[in-house]
Design brief:
Layout: E1 3-6, H1 11-16, E2 22-31, H2 37-46, E3 60-62, H3 79-90, E4 95-98, H4 104-112, E5 116-119, H5 124-129, E6 131-138, E7 147-162, E8 165-166
Parallel strand pairs: 1-2, 2-3, 3-4, 4-5
Antiparallel strand pairs: 2-7, 5-7, 6-7, 7-8
Helix pairs in contact: 2-3, 3-4
Length: 169
């Protein structure tokens, strides 16, 4: 049985998730990967992140690009992506979606911010059918790697890191 999650995500939802839980995510989620995440981190540091028009608190960020072919996870353990997880979690992001094993330091940072990481299978066609709207939030010059906001319905994922533990341990 999957746990249904709707964005924005409250603290109590995250507190109850465990490694290995299957979830289905619905609502608006952010999409970004190695080209855009460092730009978002700079906005957090500069105190200008609110100009995005999206509240990061309770948000989901999917490590992906958005293209006409659809969306599919990229490796979350790429330097630019994994190094964004701790500061984005501290800024309020509650769930990070991607693929691959994270370092122990990143898992500990997720725990400190009461955030989790979920592994999403690379099934672009399935995810495309569960995505109803997309729009560019910032950095349109990056094309499909811009920061996107997408509306999803029951995106399937498995909690891969929560409360200091990893599915890869």
């Amino acid at each position: 049985m999957s746990i249904e999650i709707t964005t924005p995500i409250g603290e109590e939802i995250i507190e109850n998730l465990q490694v290995g839980d299957t979830v289905e995510i619905s609502g608006w989620i952010l999409c970004g990967r190695d080209a855009v995440l460092p730009k978002v981190l700079k906005m957090i540091e500069d105190g200008t992140v609110q100009t995005l028009g999206v509240d990061l608190r309770g948000q989901v960020i999917f490590h992906t690009a958005v293209s006409p072919a659809g969306v599919g996870p990229t490796s979350s353990n790429k330097l630019e992506i994994e190094s964004s997880i701790a500061p984005l979690s501290a800024a309020g992001v509650k769930l990070h979606l991607g693929k691959g094993q994270l370092h122990a330091e990143t898992i500990a940072a997720l725990d400190r911010s009461n955030a989790v990481y979920a592994v999403i299978p690379p099934v672009t066609a399935l995810l495309g059918a569960k995505t109803s709207e997309t729009r560019v939030v910032a950095f349109p010059e990056l094309g499909m790697e811009a920061l996107h906001l997408i509306k999803v319905d029951r995106y399937p994922a498995i909690i891969g890191a929560a409360h200091g533990r990893s599915i890869y341990d």
